[in-house]
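$ ./design --mode recover --in tokens.txt
reading tokens...
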């Protein structure tokens, strides 16, 4: 049975009535990649800062590898790499001097690996931090989080400020860490990152964890979106008269319709096409972003 890398029990930090995070209960197993999603101000960073001992909980507890985070940062920080959502680096140092200073403090850094990260991210590490762009500073922070090959990575908006090419390279670095058994807790607004890399996801809204889901199960259980193109309008109209499915869009000019099909109705949907002439049948891939929008637009969700 896998150990819990992260365990949060009734974790609460109340800055003001309704502001903070409240009764957060979640666990992340070793080797798991857990995505943490929510709109701005939902409480994601508040949860993370308690996990890395930056903020004392009002009540409840956060444990890292079964060690209480608050009051034991020297122990917990040895096992993890942390990337803050607000990168704050000493402006008077070069990137290289900063990374070597951190390496000297930690005493567990694989410097050969650090240099490999620097080169892969095309980081000009000899430049003074005060002269770096936001994206360059983000690269320094990524190297700092990964270079000790920690057991656990806690990443808050890790690709903020990176261009698309560097976002892809970051994903490759993270995927390699996942392959090597690193546990990852990642908060991100980039749904592609979460969709590609995570095993499970938690959704936070107004400081409350409203839902957790296994990503593979979510893909299987979510409705599928299909598009059907017919050779002529009359054939499309004939199908619409008998189709007992949810119609999302109709294009008369293209004789094309878009439908939403529940997983349990997939077989009957495909059977319904047998007596019709069609040019093209397509299935749209599951969209975590659309699922997120539907979940957060529904104020009655419980």
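writing sequence...
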């Amino acid at each position: 049975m896998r150990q819990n890398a992260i365990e949060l029990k009734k974790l609460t930090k109340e800055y003001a009535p309704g502001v903070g995070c409240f009764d957060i209960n979640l666990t992340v197993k070793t080797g798991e990649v857990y995505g943490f999603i929510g709109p701005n101000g939902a409480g994601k960073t508040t949860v993370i800062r308690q996990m890395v001992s930056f903020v004392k909980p009002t009540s409840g507890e956060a444990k890292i590898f079964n060690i209480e985070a608050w009051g034991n940062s020297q122990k917990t920080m040895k096992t993890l790499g942390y990337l803050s959502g607000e990168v704050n680096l000493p402006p008077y140092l070069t990137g290289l001097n900063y990374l070597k200073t951190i390496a000297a403090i930690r005493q567990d850094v694989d410097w050969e690996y650090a240099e490999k990260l620097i080169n892969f991210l095309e980081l000009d590490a000899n430049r003074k931090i005060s002269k770096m762009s936001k994206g360059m500073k983000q690269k320094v922070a990524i190297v700092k989080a990964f270079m000790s090959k920690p057991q656990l990575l806690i990443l808050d908006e890790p690709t903020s400020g990176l261009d698309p090419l560097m976002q892809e390279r970051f994903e490759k670095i993270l995927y390699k860490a996942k392959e090597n058994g690193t546990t990852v807790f990642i908060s991100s607004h980039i749904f592609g990152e979460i969709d590609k890399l995570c095993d499970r996801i938690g959704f936070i809204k107004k400081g409350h964890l409203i839902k957790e889901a296994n990503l593979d199960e979510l893909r299987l259980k979510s409705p599928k979106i299909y598009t059907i193109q017919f050779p002529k309008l009359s054939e499309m109209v004939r199908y619409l008269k008998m189709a007992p499915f949810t119609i999302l869009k109709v294009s008369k000019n293209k004789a094309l319709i878009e439908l939403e099909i529940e997983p349990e109705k997939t077989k009957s949907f495909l059977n319904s096409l047998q007596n019709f002439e069609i040019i093209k049948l397509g299935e749209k891939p599951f969209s975590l972003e659309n699922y997120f929008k539907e979940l957060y637009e529904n104020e009655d969700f419980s």
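exit 0
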